[in-house]
Design brief:
The protein is mainly alpha-helical. Helix content is 82%, strand content 0%. It has one domain. The two termini are 14 Å apart. It is a multi-pass membrane protein.
C-alpha cells in the first residue's frame, strides 16, 4: 500500500508542477486552487507512505516520478524538445527509481 501511495504522490507532483505554469504566477484562481490542492494531496500521500518506507528511498522515488512525469508531459503537451540526450537521462532516472524500489 505504501508504494501505491508513493506512486499517487508522485503523479500528483506532476499535476502540481504542470499546474504551476497554468496559474500564471498565481493570478488565475481556478488553476491556483487546483495546483495548491494537488500540492497538499501529494505531500499528504508522501507522508502516509513514509510511515513504512525509508525516507531517502521514498523521497528519491517521489521526486523521480515527478521529474520524469513532468518532462514527459512537457514533451507531449508543451512542445518541449525530445532530444536523444534528454530521453537517455529520463531512462537513467527511471532506472534509478526501479533500483531504489528493488532494494528497499
Amino acid at each position: 500500500m505504501s508504494w501505491l501511495l508513493l506512486l499517487v504522490a508522485g503523479l500528483l507532483e506532476v499535476g502540481w508542477a504542470v499546474g504551476l505554469k497554468q496559474t500564471e504566477g498565481f493570478t488565475r484562481p481556478l488553476p491556483t486552487v487546483l495546483t495548491l490542492a494537488a500540492m497538499a494531496a501529494s505531500i499528504a500521500c508522501l507522508g502516509l507512505a513514509l510511515k513504512e518506507l525509508p525516507v531517502g528511498t521514498a523521497y528519491a522515488v517521489w521526486t523521480g516520478i515527478g521529474t520524469v512525469g513532468t518532462v514527459l508531459v512537457g514533451i507531449a503537451v508543451a512542445g518541449d524538445p525530445a532530444s536523444a540526450g534528454r530521453l537517455i537521462c529520463i531512462g537513467l532516472i527511471v532506472a534509478g527509481i526501479a533500483g531504489l524500489k528493488l532494494t528497499a
